[in-house]
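Two entries, shown back to back:
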Amino acid sequence: MPAPTNTLLIEGSFEELAEELARYLDNQGQGEQTSSLHSEIGSLLQDNKKDEVLKKLVSGSTVLNSAPEREFIAAYNLLIHLVRQSPNMNMFLPVICRNLSQPISSSPSNGAGLALSILSTVFNIIQPDSDTRYHVFLAILNVIKSTSNFETLRPQLKHLDAWLAQWESDEEEQRKLYLAVSDAASDAGEVEDAYAYLVRALRTIPSEEASSDEACTLSLRALKSALTHPTHFDFQDLTSLDSIQALRKSEPTYFELLEIFTSELLDDFNDFKDEHDHFLADAELDGAALNRKMRLLTLASIAASTGQTRSLPYSAIARALQIPAADVEMWVIDVIRAGLVEGKLSQQTQTFLIHRSTYRVFAENQWREVASRLDMWRSSLVGVLAVVRQEKEAFIAQKEQELRELDSKMNGGGMAGYRPGRQQRNAVEAE
């Protein structure tokens, strides 16, 4: 993978190294080439036509994918070293990247590692602000995708935004790269990363293109991913996107389903299934998984709506989730594990005591509740301050009273002019 280095040292003149590589390619391509590369580049070298020489070498370098594993990296490094000497280096790199994206037939088990090693070298010899790096990185993603080795890529993702800024990539290029990362993550079974980069790709779609075929396709893909993701419960990241909102017209049934999972309850989901028979099956959505998620979301909603009581009877939970009373505790434990609600079960009172609940949609009613709670807390704090002030005043008054009483006793007992220090000294002298 990319690393902070751009050094590649190979001794020899361009002419000597070009002839050496041409002879090697000729040997590797015996039986495939009808002419000799070494003989073809001879006259070109004499005329100092280096770019023409490189075109021949790069075109013939496809045979390197069948080169012995122990020679693969050395041969490619030589080719890259020669290409790097051309002022038109970017003209040759796409072919090299395309070749490296193909299977390495000489090493089926280690081929991806060999290709990534060379692609990383190519990436690192390019200036950081060159947009050529963008195309090389796409080739790296293609190799990673073919091997489902997403962990190799993960450490580099933290640099992705900075790279895109350096390359001055436009929205379409950013979208292509985010989708490539999403595809690589998906093939490796990394569903969270796959979804995250898919949403990032959607955010690059301009508002005026929100209804395009591409936007619709990607939006449906993201919607299905969010619905079936076992731990994704907040759909605000989708509903805020223009391309998702465009589904209201282009795919109204999908959009209706999204609205149900955004803010509605299990009863609404069951009504949807009755109204759109076979829709889930036709859309290849797992009905059982959606039922489970909808129950968890419903429980989160009724927990958030308890108000000041902050408790839910088992019977209310069983009724809302349409489950036997014996299963209530199991579902409460599941919703706590999902992070949607925090609380404590009371078997004695058959209630769920809620400490914290998650609002699925934070709208006007929720803001009103927040304002109400803030007012209540402010009133409580005012009361606490009044009590503290009263106690402080009482404490000061008590101390003043004690001082007055002490002074009165001292004056009434003929102790005017009493000096504790002098009395103590006299007592010491008497001794």
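entry 2 starts here
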Amino acid sequence: MSDDQINYEVIGRDVYLSKKIHSLIRSRQSELKGIAGAINETCLTYSRLTNEYRLFNYGNIPVAIETIQSIDNQLKELLPEQNKWAKIAGGEPIIIEGLNDVR
């Protein structure tokens, strides 16, 4: 393919959206790790031998879940567009399990 045939605009859209999606996924993973950390912290402080227990701290969980839902909604919106440009540009589509229906 010659330079005259390369559609840099299409490639740019694919790259831009891919980077945005991967950034959202990293943010989502961070929120999920925070929730997992809160759960592990509660579970690890349980001691049957000393009768020491810790109540689960729900404090940041609702905000984290709202953030994850917001990110999921953004991914649902961006994924089909990115995959469209990836197909035109000859790039790789991004597949997110559970969002397959939005491709």
